[in-house]
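Dear Dr. H.,

I hope your travels went smoothly. While you were away I took the liberty of generating a structure for the chain from your last submission, since the lab meeting agenda had it listed for discussion. I wanted you to have the full record in hand beforehand rather than looking at slides cold. The sequence, exactly as received, is reproduced here:
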Amino acid sequence: MVRIRPSAAYLAKSAKNIEAVPFKSFIAKTIERDKKEYPGMTIFEHAVLTGKVAQYLIKSLPKRVQDLFGDSAVLIAASHDIGKLNQYFYSRIQTIIGNEDTPLCKEIISSLNLADNKNLVKSLKFAEHAFNYHPGLSYITVYSLTHFHYLSSVVGRHHGFFKKIILDEPVSDAGGSLWYEERKKLFNELNKIWPLSLKQDINYTKALMWSGLTSVSDWIASSNLFDKFVDDDAKIADVIQANFLNKPRFINGLTFGRIFKDPLGKELIPNDLQKKLSNVIEQGPGLYVVEAPMGNGKTEAALYACYKAMEKGNAYGLYFALPTRITSNQIFLRVNDFLGKVLDDERNVSQAFLIHGGADMFLSYAGSDASQGKIWYAKGSRKMLAPFAVGTIDQALLGILHVKHAGVRLFSLTGKTVVFDEVHSYDAYTSTLLQKLVSVLLEFKCTVIILSATLTRNSVCKLFGEKKVINNAVYPALFYRSDEEGIKVIPLEEGLKKDFVVNVSYDEDEEYKKVIQKALDGQQILWIENTVPKAQKVYKKLLELTVGKDIECALLHSRFIPCHRQQKENYWIDILGKKSQDKRLTKGRILIGTQVLEQSLDIDADYLVTRCAPIDFLLQRIGRLWRFNLLKRAKTAKAELTILNIRLSDAIDADDVVLMGDSVFVYDPYVLARTACRLKKLTHITLPDDIQSLIDDVYEERTESGFMQKLKDYSKDGCRQIGLDGSRQLENCAVSASSMDDAVNDSNLSDDLENVFTRYRKIVSQDILLLQDLPQINEDQSIDFVLLNGQSIKLSKDILNKKAIEFRKITNLFKENIVSYHNVNFAIKLSYLENLGLSKILPDLIYKNTKNENAESFYQRFLCAVVKNGKLNFLIDENKIEESSLFYTQNFGLYKI
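The corresponding predicted structure, in token form, is as follows:
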């Protein structure tokens, strides 16, 4: 990065020197009373208050983390608005409070040569555009005084993004030297309170974190609870604790059994993993990787380790990150139960916050929606500020991507224990992002816990930032590093062993006969496919074959509208879950699905059929087989599974990877082929004994030739002709997306998080709102909607003025009837949605962004369809409806004919 040097006295480039207002009397804030604006705090008062808020927030963090900030961070937070000291901002504030007729205001306004003064406030704001408004001028000023680029970028980024300003280019008039002197005086006055002690510039990641501190401090200091200047540290602390960020209080000395109990209320005795992780975590912040079999209590181990880290003072909260919304919902309930045991606090801080795109819907089902909505941080990027939160990994990864307020997300994780569960499920793109995030969190002195049953040793080393692979076959194991020394490995006890009979088959028709007979015997069967179309095909075939038989068949995948999917998940957890003893024995059942059965539902099967997948994913699927030891099963049931293997010989003979099936577009074809080869000689699996050897057999480096070498090349470099992406390409994309270098122009950042990928996507899905009938426009211009699930909504033009809770209820009703699909060759006209009153609500409905500037682009991703006799009829405009080849039913979900 080339250091930016200020031009020689850049202020001389101002058009002229204009009389400046002394900083101690310069009004920076207004107060609204009875729909009228009055003068608020001066810029100096707001700066000092912001600095004191930042000081409090820093002191609330663990001691080791506080050392990452210091007075320099507080000074920069206090200086964030220094760029408001310019003639245009002064005139704008004076105009807002009705003082635009003062001589100085008149002089400044006349210099703009406006045709009229109808939009005077907007014109004055636009005049600041040349120096990127007051954040840009704050950057220019602090840089001219410190010559530290990254430090100065903190104030330039406090509104969420930073636009580079080349100081050697002419800068629009910022008031000349007189106004610059006032900005300089303000900075020097603040520097007396919080001295700048840096000897050199900070790095980019620290600048990003400090910008998060600055933004949060500014938000709090700008609240109407601080209409008047407060200089008392104790009063400031009381206001923050009561209204913004409560510091949790923990009950000390709790044993594992006091927190975790069996269904009868008896205290659980910690197993070897749970004991060792809780002991080693006391060494302090660092990276702890747990590799242990499914059902070995990894979640409880991680939660108890979080408690020990908080009790020790190494963390003040936690963020539990999972791969899917469904797994997040399930862990959310368990984390809340955990918090109820360890917190000595009656306030709302005693509950976790759920963070993902479907959180509102789940919370409305769970009855928690209203309570979370009242909390200050229940909005946008503030959500990560919750002391305790559960969500998808995507929410954490946004902290290292080029999104608005990425710094707030990083600051929100600082000082917490961050748990990443089921990390084996990510591709090269998301895994590379995760590795980058882990390295940043460790730089910020976080405690990071990684949980998985099936990690390769290469993956473990990458998480630790090591290139040399660990040649250690110990499984299960705990890997950790809490200092600058090497990676340490602690062997764990294997726990309960499970033996499974493995049938490797190439005859799908024969398997249909087998599962029907087992279901007639009363067994509960899971059939897992790798793609939705294939799962739908299997379901259709089994429906035909089970007509007239007392067998229940069902289908579960991602292409159901949320309300239907939630109903299905609840039903099958009730039937196949841990407490399903009586219901599961009433009849035989076959549940067909995709990866949602592999990682999202806590269910148990007597028999498993699975399409061939990478060995680590197969092992996860086997984890759903005979999962709960105390369940009663059909008399004929035995621990058995069938893997429908790939006909690799056909693909080798034809030298055509496509003959391996659709799975090659879901998983790495080389890993699939290696897995298929290993399965040929597999007849039994013992868990956990065989986990590490199976993974090593498939993933260890080896020399290839012929077709296997071609697959290996595809694995690394992809194949454009058939649409395969290689790991090298995915890793490079992830490195580019997470580049910790402000060479990317932050001014191009988007509020629309759907445009920022935490998962690699070649095809962007379109969202389809499913209706039972055409929307009806009434005489009063309200619109009646009948959604697919039967819910009726009357949408009035004042929808955006409704209270937050009421607005969320309405948007949730819409969300419950949305399904995603790709390659839909229709486009809804924006004008039609405007007539329906949807052009304002839908961006917020789906993307939580009512300020989406690129509306046309948004509606290219959104469609409305009326479902008649199962067929989707797309709404194009008020005069045009087009039939499609897409269908939707409650049993099949969305499918194409």
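Two observations you may find useful: Confidence is low (pLDDT under 50) at residues 1-15, 167-172, 747-755, 845-860. DSSP finds 36 helices and 26 strands in the chain.

With kind regards,
E. W.
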